[in-house]
């Protein structure tokens, strides 16, 4: 089902950091529940989680097919791996559970490309790697991160050239998560670099195409078309079930169940690349590895039902280690019913208060700081507060994108006032009453915040002066702070070549993990110092691993081709 954005957005008021509506080419159901894992029943009966006890080997194989490279998953990572391997002469097959390729999102992060250098952005990859590594409290693999930071430029030069040959252009990032202006000069904990780009076929200026699909679909289509033109085969509606081989002897293939119910073994001469996505659709894994995600308002991964941790299960059953880094939920400040067409006006920094009328954290539009704080409030509920001078503070906070943020704002505010998603009052007492919060505490919070804004220093939470927006000019407004889980990057333990490792750090021959099933890249949170890095690592490692594996090598052994 192709979903037009207007068909499911009901209208509300977006505050905090931006996020992108997620849409899949092959069909999606964002409101579908997470998969009921058989592992939950297994835990009750055996005391072991689903990834801790391998099922009986599949023996009724109806057909065996031989390839050089087998890719499991046709998302952005898998499609790029297939394209690179096929382009370099390998016989490639991609196994995908969905009915087509699955692409979502808007921005793709990279460093060092000709495009960036021509536009005056040339960040030392060691700086970017350090920011991302330290954002995980150094629980991640710095060398793995550095591969993205130092080698993504050459990969994106290739993608840029491929696009130029096919009417697709690389442009500065279109989503609100990407930041411009002085964001790259803010203190370290708020710093955001302009590393992200988007790929467009027309003159798109927002995050959706005219057909209702997110702009990253254009990138996915570009690479998919090149992959098939170079001979890559795609087998849709087929679920990979088990790896062939084990950690000790190496992985030589995958057994999948095709749409007709048959078990087919796909042998891989050079290696298997797992690109099976995250764990956001597996409730058992969420409960164990990322329980904070249960406090978000929604799980809006698309396509729902396909991100079930299959790569972790198959890898663990074969003896692979699970990521040594904690799960890193990508939880953004929106839900599907709080997006309104292309409006990004209130992806801003407004005073945020909890159910007690108290300020509870820094309001910077910077994931994961905003969402983590919201999910730790009493009752898990909070509001953003702003006043009648909001236009002034929009200009102050985002001068480079002010016109875009004001586009259509008046009409949307009127609509949301009518449906109750936006609350308006002439006095703070009235606003507090409508929100059901203690008026005296709320007014004291506003008074303290306004005083710090007047002095130009937030001594409580260190919000920079540019982003302080005092609440003093009626009418006063409030909107509920919301957040959704987009994806939960957490996967298999890998080395800097993205080769899957055992728990004791030994590489497993013939097995690689890329995209959100690649562990050790993010830890604890998904940081936005380098926006679009999640999609960026999908493209980068997909291309690097695919290219190298076509030659029977790892990415550190051969140059990108």
Structure description:
Strands 1, 2, 6, 7, 8, 9, 17 and 18 form an 8-stranded mixed beta sheet that branches. This protein has a 4-stranded antiparallel beta sheet with strand order 12-13-15-14, with helices on one face. Strands 3-5-4 form a 3-stranded antiparallel beta sheet. The chain is globular and about 75 Å long. The two termini are 36 Å apart. α3 (76-87) runs parallel beside α7, α3 packs parallel to α16 (533-550) and α14 packs across α15 (439-455). The protein has 561 residues and is an alpha/beta fold. The chain has 16 helices and 18 strands. The protein has helices at 5-8, 38-46, 76-87, 114-118, 125-135, 142-165, 216-229, 283-289, 310-317, 369-374, 390-397, 402-406, 409-419, 428-435, 439-455, 533-550; strands spanning 61-72, 92-96, 108-109, 169-172, 196-200, 233-236, 239-246, 250-257, 263-274, 298-299, 330-332, 351-354, 382-387, 423-425, 476-480, 484-487, 499-501, 507-513.
Keywords:
alpha/beta; eight-stranded mixed β-sheet; 18 strands; disordered N terminus
Our Rg estimate from Cα atoms comes to 24 Å
Average predicted local confidence, pLDDT: 90
Helix content: 25-40%
What summary fits the major beta sheet?
A: 8 strands, mixed
The number of E-state strands comes to 18
Shape: globular
Structural class: alpha/beta
CA-to-CA gap between the ends?
36 Å
Which oligomerization state do the chains in this entry correspond to?
single chain
Which spans have pLDDT < 50 for at least 5 consecutive residues? Answer: 1-33
Strand content: 15-25%
Note the total helix count: 16
